[in-house]
Sequence to fold (181 residues):
Amino acid sequence: MKKQRMLEQQEKSIEKWGEESKAVKEKADLIYKNYGLVENILKTIMRTRETRSWDEIKRNIENEDSPEANAIKELREHEGIVVVELGGKDVELDITKTVDENAAELYEKAKKMKSKREKAKKIMEKTKEKIIVAEKPLIPKIPEKRTRKKWYEKYRYFWTSDDFLVVAGKDAETNEQLIKR
Fold:
């Protein structure tokens, strides 16, 4: 039961990492699809920041009716992030970075998520193997009893039809040992 729950959680995490990886990659693709728009937004914010305060920049964005201003959803000046709507998705952009750097960062993030997904898959396979092993019936191993050798087993011997033991030496030396016995 415990391992079954682990397996279910691992399946959920694999699914989660896969979905998140796709979503992040899609955002990076959207940055490149809207390269000109994103570049204008980042350059404009950095240029106006040199002469104006963040409050003035926010007011200008609210009052302006351009594609760039309409695309900006949120400006987090303390974090240096602007949230832009691209293709119906909100994409966070670092205003200190270029378009390429922002997209590359998202691609790298997607790559890491994908590798986490692959690791989770490997761990899930190991868990499945453990479940299979745990479900197999355990056959207890019976230790073999050691039988002590009889005194005559180190010589040549046989039992007669009348149940007499006949013992012979393997060579002259063992014959002498038998006679002494």
Remarks:
- Residues 151-180 form one domain.
- The chain has two domains: 2-135, 151-180.
- Helices lie at 2-33, 35-49, 54-63, 67-71, 99-135, 172-180.
- The longest strand covers residues 81-86.
